[in-house]
Structure formats: structure tokens, C-alpha cells
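S.,

Sequence below, as promised.
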Amino acid sequence: MRSVPLLLLGPIAVFAQPFSAGIKAGVPLTDFLNATENGVYSGYTVSTQRYIVGGVAELRLPLGFGVEFDALYRHLHYDGSIAYTVPFTGLVYALPTRTTGNNWEFPLLLKYRFHVPVVRPYLDAGAAWDTLAGLKQTIMGGPINPGGPVVPAGTTTTSSPSELKENTTMGFVLGGGVDIHAAFLHISPEIRFTRWNSAQIGDTFGLLRSNRNQAEFIVGFTF
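The prediction came back faster than expected:
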């Protein structure tokens, strides 16, 4: 009969461990997109967003272990041009494009803190999911030439640009940092590396491609 109370108290003991939540912010150490220009009719330029921001929640387990879940955000923006061939003429025009979107990253990590007072080094590892949302590509048409070849005028938009390969990918994460305990606040600077399984963005000619190797410096503030 003694085993019954122990079984009932087991889950309670797990969830009774300290739970913390807060925010994370940092900077990418690698670009999300790699872009080049061929100098003729097509090419891309990237406006790198030098920030990462989001939320963090952690369940602290016995023996220095913990489970952490993050939701991290950064903005996506790149400009390009596509070659448009006027029918029956062979004339080629470069039509400029602008693409924006939201990039969300969701790491789920197992963390281990070393037993050192005040400033505790830690390592973490796990899986992450990266998804693109709210993509919008605007294609800006050229002028209409009276009496000559017609180039599409005005602008058109799409939520599925030709460079999009897949909205979501998975990767493996490895990181390390220190947990600084100051009163009720934990400050956790960390360097984190992620290897994604596949590139989410890429064009036919290899001028634009999302980076499968990602490094970032982030700082967590949890309570």
C-alpha cells in the first residue's frame, strides 16, 4: 500500500520544481539569407535584421537539469529583380521585387547547469523548428511603351514567392552560457548554434539561399 502514495506524489514532485519565464533578446552572428547579384537581369540584396527577440519558459528539474522552450522572432526582408522577356520580341527587362515576412524559431532544449554558486555555467541541446509566416512579395512592373513592346505595368503581390522552398524546417541545437542569479532575476547570456535540415529559401540560379548553419548570441531574463 505504501507504493500507491509514492506513485501519486511522483508527478507532484516533478511539477513542484521551480518554473521560470521571461524574455530573450540578442543578435544573429550569421545571416539568415546569403545573396549575390549577377549584374545582368536578376540578383538579390538582403537587409539583415540585427535583432532576435522573444519569450522563454523553463521547468527546472533535479540534479541541475532543466527543460527550456523558446519562441524567437526576427523580421525577413530581401530585394531582387526578375527577368521578364517581352513576348515575340526577345527584349528582356529587369522587374524589381521586394519580399518581407516573419521568421519564427521554436527551440526545445534540455539544459544542464554545473554546480557553481552565483554564476553557473550551463550547456543545452535539443531540437528547433523554424517557420516563415506572413510572406509578401511585391513585383513592380515597368512602363507601357506606346507603339512599342508592352512591359507589365503596376504592381502585383504574392504570398508564395518563387524563392520559397518550404515554410517550415527542423534543426538540431547546441549551446552554452552562464546563469547569473541576481536576487529574483536570472540573467543568462548564451551562444547558440543550429544546423537546419534544409534551406527554406533558394532561387533557381543559386543567387539567394537561406543559411543552414545559424549562430546567435542571446541573453535571457527570467523570473
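The radius of gyration is 24 Å.

Coffee later?
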